[in-house]
Amino acid sequence: MKFFIDTANLEQIKEAQDLGILDGVTTNPSLMAKEGISGNEAINAHYSAICEIVDGDISAEVLSTTYEEMIKEGEELAAIHPNIVVKIPMIKDGIKALKYFTDKGIKTNCTLIFSAGQALLAAKAGATYVSPFLGRLDDISVDGLNLINEIRTIFDNYGYPTQILAASIRHSMHIIDCAKLGADVITSPLAPILSLLNHPLTDKGLAQFIEDSKKMK
Ligand code: G3P
User: Fold this and answer.
1) CB of 135 closer than 6 A to ligand 1?
2) What is the domain-level CATH number for residue 66?
3) Spatial distance between the Cα atoms of 19 and 116, rounded to a whole number of angstroms
4) What EC class does the entry list (predicted)?
5) Against a cut of 0.85, is the pTM above it?
6) Which of 3, 82, 152, 153 has its CA 20 to 30 A from that of 44?
7) 145 CA to middle of ligand 1, Å?
């Protein structure tokens, strides 16, 4: 399973990259705005900076919602770096845009997926990734993990190469459950990734080993 970090914060991206387990980065307009990034020049420079830190797929989301504008914007984003993945919203014009970029050999990530039918349409259009938002479904008392399971079954039934990029991860159990269900990728904030490290018996055991190692010197 690939690990992406879901942030536009360069320090957190560097910290995850330093761990040596990072495969890519996803961003969205909310995450970019949180870092105070605005205007075309600053947006493109920020994506370039992320591409300098991580050698993997970097999702950059279009801000427009019409086919023509998404094509123009997506082509500009794709020109920033070969690792840029054009992130397209799950709307009717978005499906057409996915097909356009697929035919041009440009990687895509279809975002805001909340149903198996949406994932199926995106896969038909050739999306490289679909991003089901499992945390936001859990927030409204709908089982987000069930959606991951449904999409896995459908993609496996027909051998769709589209990768399931489980998004809106809220805690480490989401990551573990996605791994059990066969998600291809999880994209997570830094904290849930780091919390995979933790176990009290590891801390207790290490403290004992350190204490006993003093007797060996
Ligand atoms: O990047 C898309 C998704 O991961 C957003 O997550 O926490 O805003 O629901 P969240």
Assistant:
1) yes
2) 3.20.20.70
3) 33
4) transferase
5) yes
6) 3
7) 15
